[in-house]
Design goal:
The complex is a heterodimer of chains A (402) and B (516).
Chain A (H helix, E strand, L loop, with lengths): L1 E5 L9 E7 L5 E7 L2 H18 L5 E7 L4 H15 L26 E6 L3 H5 L8 E5 L9 H14 L6 E5 L20 E4 L5 H15 L7 E6 L2 H5 L1 H5 L7 E4 L1 H8 L11 H14 L2 E4 L8 H14 L3 E4 L3 H10 L3 H19 L5 E3 L2 E3 L1 H16 L7 H7 L1
Parallel strand pairs in A: 3-4, 5-6, 5-12, 6-7, 7-8, 8-9, 9-10, 10-11, 11-12
Antiparallel strand pairs in A: 1-2, 2-4, 13-14
Helix pairs in contact in A: 1-2, 2-4, 10-11, 12-13
Chain B lengths: L3 E3 L5 E3 L1 E2 L2 E2 L33 E2 L2 H7 L7 E4 L9 H12 L4 E5 L9 H6 L3 E4 L5 H8 L7 E3 L2 H10 L6 E6 L1 E2 L5 E2 L14 H6 L2 E6 L19 E4 L6 H4 L10 H16 L7 E4 L4 H17 L3 E8 L1 H9 L2 E9 L2 H9 L3 E3 L2 H4 L14 E3 L4 E3 L4 E2 L15 H4 L4 E5 L3 E2 L2 E2 L1 E2 L14 E4 L2 E4 L4 H7 L6 E2 L1 H12 L7 E10 L5 E8 L1
Parallel strand pairs in B: 5-14, 6-7, 6-10, 7-8, 9-29, 10-13, 13-14, 15-16, 15-19, 16-17, 17-18, 19-22, 20-25, 22-26, 27-28
Antiparallel strand pairs in B: 1-2, 3-4, 11-12, 20-21, 23-24, 26-27, 29-30
Helix pairs in contact in B: 8-9
Classes of the chains: A alpha/beta (402), B alpha/beta (516).
């Protein structure tokens, strides 16, 4: 019996290919081919023995073709290959690094989120250095059907072992119902947010919610949800989806599938998706969550991306997916509040606080009445500006001292 | 085995290498040479035909006339890079003639020279004094070469020839264009490579000089980058190089997001530190990351209306564009990397042909290298004391030559943009496997996870301390690399010395030992 996992083609840097063949006797034989033998050969062999021992594999031939894979990658590949030849409910978990021991708030900036194919470890290792607000370990469209299972181990291990430098750690699960099976690999490993693709009904959200609660053994967990609307039916049900769970913090639109669904071509101008995008923005606002726009797929067209982000912000979106790290800077900058916007927000917030201090029921700026939603929006703008480094946290002191 | 001594960097080196007593590295600028330069023999016109026709039948004929015999030192240049057809051809002829124990003295070797392993094995070649790339490096690291390899920088090679540390018996200069008198250049013909600067010392100092060309033109071959007055024989060959391997059609920018980030951080650092200013000079190199850095420089210069006085090159399309746009006044070129570089050198008087003599030779009355404001270099390893390694990898194997790297360290601000690790192999380490450049000469390390400034450069610290650049200590970077990759094991070596690393002044800064 033979189990395999991983990649071995030439482009598979930072990855490895593992083949586990159970034998009748003669113990464990590890055949490791690696360029880093001098530096890490011993530690890799030790790790493999530890994993085999953990799964009580006594007799096996293990072949590893390594191209500089880190421990969490090797461990994921080996566990996946072992589980093709034995049945075990156990999981080989590396320690959860302390840097990943954080939760995220409901209202944080979600301007940019970087997509990482769930079975491509080389893109995960440095994903945190590009200043994206979030990283998405993707189990859905970027993973080939026959690689779905091994990707789960890799994504699980990445959640525990890769330092993403404070980015919100997201996972996109597979379409419901398949995606429900992904949850046990991510929920216990401190994932911050789960993206639910191709959402069409609130019932799908409820299914995910229920399953997460079961795994987390509480409904008071801090795992956020972000449904992605990618069809005409999803757009029709947008508000009921957005309000289907208290854990939903944002709702995104996926335009590739949506335009296909309505039978239109996706264009640069986006006429065909104007309605759907507006519905998403509106439904999100009504549900008190963030509206997130679809990815811009021409990686080499930075000018096009810039315009697209400006248009998206004007529609009311607060963020967008990134398919290449080069897009992050432009997207972050594009969704940041502009200088005039920040100034206005500062005035409103100060006026609001002044009114509160004086016990006034109404807020006024230059004799103009300000309503509460406007104040709320100003506070959001200020917070985004602080996150983006456009405004100091102690801006009130500096303003008052001026 | 020769007695081992410790040089000033604490590296244990043998007293003798290939039977010659060596001078241990004494510190930067500390070794004071004495005596006079090497003196080539006095030739006479009486020995040469008055019509200037030095053509001989073929390369074999030329080698025989040049007095090829056992134990000779044969030099070649590397302007044809991976498209060189001449070096292997020379040693095929020598083997056919039955001569043994040659020393090959190239200005660099490339993967196309892998067939020479056979000649090292059968004793035709005794050892190599030049760079040790890829398969040759592996062969040497495994202790299979008869003699000890000697690695020198481009400037150090000129110095060694000039000072008589090495005597070239026969220099074979492959020339893209030449006349029967021996005047030659790299500008035209199917094997055009731009210039021939690496062959300059060979032409001036070798006992015998052979020019080989596949593009013979009537006298005079203008410009004469190599002067026929130094040349003994001229050979016409059908093909001397593979054009597409000599220069690439276009040099490729990196698309790797990590490298783009490193390039961006590097140019931001230069901007914040005030290094990009009117009249400045730079050398960025020709690797994928370097190309991107020069385009970032270009953008900053355009935006701020800054002009550079000169750029040292490795020229390529992007640098040529900057020259033609007027952002750079001169390109002082050491080798051309693409067809645009060759064209520009041919057409533009401000695109200047240089040699290791003008740019790098340390035993000289100054050189250009120390005048360059910003120097961008690579490294296989950098240690916590900023020492750099460019010849071996962390597993102990020789893989690269020194090139102009050591010479460029004399630039005013030396910046190494390197990834923190490559496919799990940490680049920032406790101690370099092989010492090629002392840490006091390396100013800034830029990685994707932070920038470390050499504590000796307090001025740079001051300039960037209020910026939002991710400044870290080199120790912090090393710790971060180890946290991600794990603590690396060390290669094990035998006592056998397989290669010597020369410093720019001819002293020995380190040696490489056989990998166990």
């Amino acid at each position: 019996m033979t189990g395999i996992a991983g990649n071995k083609d030439d482009s598979a840097r930072s990855d490895c290919f593992v083949r586990v063949s159970l034998t009748k006797k003669s113990g464990i034989k590890i055949d490791l081919q690696t360029k880093v033998d001098t530096l890490y050969g011993d530690s890799i062999r030790k790790l493999c023995l530890d994993i085999l021992n953990f799964f009580e594999v006594k007799n096996a031939k293990v072949e590893i073709e390594d191209k500089g894979a880190l421990d969490f990658i090797i461990a994921a590949r080996l566990e996946s290959a072992i589980k093709e030849v034995i049945t075990s409910e156990k999981e080989y978990l590396l320690p959860l690094i302390k840097e990943n021991n954080y939760f995220t708030d409901k209202k944080i900036a979600r301007r940019s989120r970087l997509y990482l194919p769930g079975n491509s470890p080389k893109l995960m290792i440095n994903a945190g250095i590009y200043s994206a607000d979030g990283v998405i370990l993707d189990l859905e469209d970027s993973v080939a059907p026959d690689k779905k299972n091994e990707a789960r181990y890799l994504v699980r291990n990445a959640l525990r072992s890769v330092d993403f430098y404070g980015a919100e750690r997201m996972v996109r699960i597979n379409q419901i119902p398949d995606g429900l099976n992904d949850l046990k690999y991510i929920v216990p490993h401190n994932v911050n947010l789960i993206l639910i693709p191709k959402c069409e009904t609130p019932a799908q959200i409820k299914q995910v919610d229920k399953k997460i609660n079961e795994i987390a053994k509480t409904s008071d967990h801090r795992i956020h949800l972000m449904p992605i609307i990618e069809s005409a039916l999803g757009v029709i049900n947008a508000y009921s989806i957005a309000s289907a769970s208290k854990h939903i913090v944002a709702m995104a639109i996926g335009l590739e599938d949506y335009t296909a669904d309505i039978g239109a071509q996706r264009t640069e101008e986006g006429q065909e998706s104007f309605y759907a995008r507006s519905v998403i923005v509106n439904a999100s606002a009504a549900a008190g969550i963030q509206a997130i726009d679809s990815v811009y797929s021409d990686v080499s067209n930075m000018e096009g991306l810039k315009e697209n982000v400006a248009h998206s912000k004007a529609l009311g979106f607060v963020g967008m997916g990134c398919i290449h790290p080069r897009q992050v800077g432009i997207i972050n900058a594009g969704y940041n509040p502009g200088a005039a916007e920040i100034e206005k927000a500062k005035t409103i917030v100060l006026a609001f606080e002044e009114a509160q201090r004086k016990g006034l029921g109404v807020v006024a700026v230059k004799s103009k009445m300000i309503d509460l939603p406007v104040v709320k929006r100003a506070i959001d703008t200020i917070n985004t500006a602080i996150t983006a480094g456009l405004l100091k946290e102690n801006w009130k002191e500096t303003t008052e001292n001026e | 085995m020769s007695k081992m001594i410790k040089n000033v960097s604490g590296r244990m080196i043998p007293e003798y290498i290939n039977g010659k007593k060596i001078i241990p590295f004494q510190g930067v600028g500390k070794f004071m040479p004495s005596g006079r330069k090497a003196m080539p023999r006095i030739p006479t016109c009486a020995d040469f035909p008055p019509d200037g026709n030095k053509l001989v039948k073929n390369l074999k004929d030329a080698l025989l006339r040049a007095g090829v015999s056992d134990g000779k030192t044969i030099s070649t240049h590397h302007h044809f890079r991976n498209g060189d057809l001449i070096a292997v051809k020379i040693f095929k002829i020598i083997r056919e003639l039955g001569y043994k124990d040659m020393v090959w003295f190239p200005s660099a070797s490339f993967p196309c020279h892998e067939p020479l392993i056979e000649f090292l094995e059968d004793g035709t070649i005794h050892h190599i004094e030049g760079s040790m790339n890829g398969p040759l490096g592996k062969f040497c690291s495994e202790g299979k070469m008869k003699g000890v390899a000697v690695l020198r920088s481009h400037g150090g090679r000129y110095q060694a020839v000039q000072d008589g540390d090495i005597e070239i018996d026969i220099a074979v200069i492959a020339a893209p264009a030449a006349d029967p008198f021996g005047n030659a250049n790299g500008l035209t013909g199917p094997s055009a490579c731009g210039l021939l600067g690496f062959a300059l010392a060979d032409s001036q100092y070798a006992e015998k000089v052979i020019v080989v060309t596949d593009n013979l033109v009537p006298f005079p071959c203008i410009p004469w980058q190599i002067q026929g007055n130094y040349v003994d024989f001229v050979v016409e060959e059908e093909k001397i190089g593979i054009p597409e391997k000599i220069v690439s059609g276009t040099t490729q920018m990196t698309r790797s997001p990590d490298r783009l980030l490193i390039a961006e951080l590097t140019s931001k650092f230069c901007e914040e530190a005030g290094l990009i200013k009117d009249g400045f000079s730079f050398q960025t190199g020709a690797g994928g990351t370097s190309l991107v850095i020069s385009t970032f420089f270009r953008d900053i210069m355009r935006e701020k209306g800054i002009k550079a006085r000169f750029a040292r090159a490795g020229s390529n399309k992007y640098l040529v564009e900057m020259l033609e746009e007027g952002l750079v006044e001169y390109i002082l070129d050491g080798q051309t990397f693409d067809l645009e570089g060759v064209r520009s050198m041919r057409e533009n008087p401000n695109h200047v042909n240089t040699s290791p003599f003008t740019s790098y030779n340390y035993h000289s009355k100054g050189n250009f290298a120390s005048m360059v404001d910003i120097v961008i270099l690579g490294a296989t390893e950098v240690d916590v004391n900023f020492n750099g390694n460019v010849v071996t990898h962390s597993d102990g194997y020789l893989l690269h030559g020194i090139g102009g790297w050591q010479n460029c360290l004399f630039g005013k601000t030396v910046i190494l943009p390197v990834p923190l690790f490559r496919d799990r192999i940490p680049v920032i380490v406790d101690e370099v496997t092989t010492l090629c450049g002392p840490g006091e000469m390396i100013d800034v390390i830029v990685t994707e996870r932070g920038i470390a400034i050499n504590p000796l450069r307090k001025d740079l610290f001051e300039k960037v301390k209020n910026s939002n650049l991710p400044i870290k200590t080199i120790q912090e970077l090393k710790d971060e690399a180890e946290k991600i990759c794990g603590k690396p094991g060390k290669p094990e070596f035998t006592d056998k010395v397989v290669a010597a690393i020369k410093w720019v002044d001819g002293t020995v800064i380190d040696v490489v030992r056989q990998v166990k």
